[in-house]
Amino acid sequence: MRHDSLTKYSFHFLHGGLPMKGKNESEQLLNRKEAARYLNVSPGTLAVWDCTKRYNLKPLKVGRSVRYRKSHLDKFLEGQLTT
Fold this sequence. Notes:
By secondary structure, this protein is α+β, with helices and mostly antiparallel strands. It has helices spanning about 1-15, 30-40, 45-50, 70-80; strands at about 30, 60, 65-70. A hairpin with a 2-residue loop joins strand 2 (about 60) and strand 3. The longest helix has 13 residues, at about 1-15.
């Protein structure tokens, strides 16, 4: 039983569909490479931003894996818009 639930959890986590409770039942999570592509920066730049806390993108860390909520990336992009 335990193995099945861990496998299901791992599958959802690795494929960006980690189930979450709240308004958005399954908010999309992106890995660093996907998030960098979404923001049009390199994964290295994103790693530096996280390390130096230049921008608060609120990365989620599980072991050595890093994930970003797409909604947080969208808020970041909206904040970068100039009129």
